[in-house]
Description:
The protein starts with a strand and ends in a 6-residue tail after the last strand. By secondary structure, it is α/β, with parallel strands linked by helices. The protein contains 17 helices and 14 strands. It has a 9-stranded mixed sheet with strand order 3-4-8-7-6-5-9-10-11, sandwiched between helices. Strands 12-14-13 form a 3-stranded antiparallel sheet.
Amino acid sequence: MIIKSPGGNENRLDAGSGSVRKDEKEQLRDTIELTLVPGIGSVTQGRLRAAHQEISGVFSLAGNALASYGVAEDARSGIRTRRYRAAAEEILDWGLREGCLFVVRGTPGYPPLLEEIFDPPLLLYGRGNPEALALPCLAVVGTRRPTWYGLQMAEGLASDLTRRGVAIVSGLARGIDAAAHRGCLGADGRTIAVLGCGIDIVYPREHGDLSRRIERQGLLLSEFPPGTSPAPQNFPVRNRLISGLSLGALIVEAREYSGSLITARLALEQNREVFALPGNLTSPQSFGPNYLIKQGAKLVQSWQDIAEEFPNELRHTILAREVAREPRPALELLSPDEIRILDALRAETATHFDKILAATGLEISRLSNLLLNLEMSGFLRQVPGNLFVKTARPVV
């Protein structure tokens, strides 16, 4: 929870913060407790919060009063007996000890866009830098089994938008999500990973390093209490937060029954923009974006296509920065040998060094130097196995 300290500074409610008053701590504990009671969803929690200035008042309501807010019988019993108070105390103590960020609906720091959705969560747990929540955000999501083309475009577009002051929101999943996070981090930006588990759990496990980078530079966010395992039913629930935090959602690659299409549908329901990257008609990963484009999603070829749909003030700010930007190297400035190398590469397929050598006829040392120069200029990328992929976006 972002709170005002007695000195007027904004601080996280974390371990050792002398600015946290006892009543604030108790209010947060009661908020956690309410979210732990089974059978009370975000909508009902919102009704109860709106009707009571102090959340502690909910626990003294009579059964019939709770029923009038739509609280089921089993849940009423859990509230009145304070069955989950000890668990809430334990979570709060853990959060204070670990420097956890608590983002409570109705307090400073809660994302305004999230307030607009049908069922905003009463409480979010976070780890990292809360400044990411104050930035304009774009969701970038897609398949867990992307093509090289999809990975390049997700990373490149995320990087391009980050350089224009946009935070990237995604789900830390394998494939497109991870590429979007990396593109943002590589451009020294803020990225938000919305988890389908507790913030104390890394899922998938191989994203441990990426998770730690996001925590240092961006924000890990979850509405699920610490210790919650990554159960399949959690991910469609968290998708509404990915789109809800964002001005729009970009679908890079998605198969016919991809969860990314759920995110696109939720974005539409939340009155957000939906963007889609067109793909090869023969590729299963292209089904989702191509379908969305037929349904009216905006076709994306570059970051400009997305920025054009941002609110006027943000769009004008980005365009003003672009006027002052120094131009980057253009294709016309490359040497004939460098152009020959790029002609031998593809955006959708990685090409081995030996194949490039045979196609260009260059000496090994000359080819190595030129590949390095092209990578430094952003025209290509080296991947493990001495393989190279052409960057599938214009250098900007």
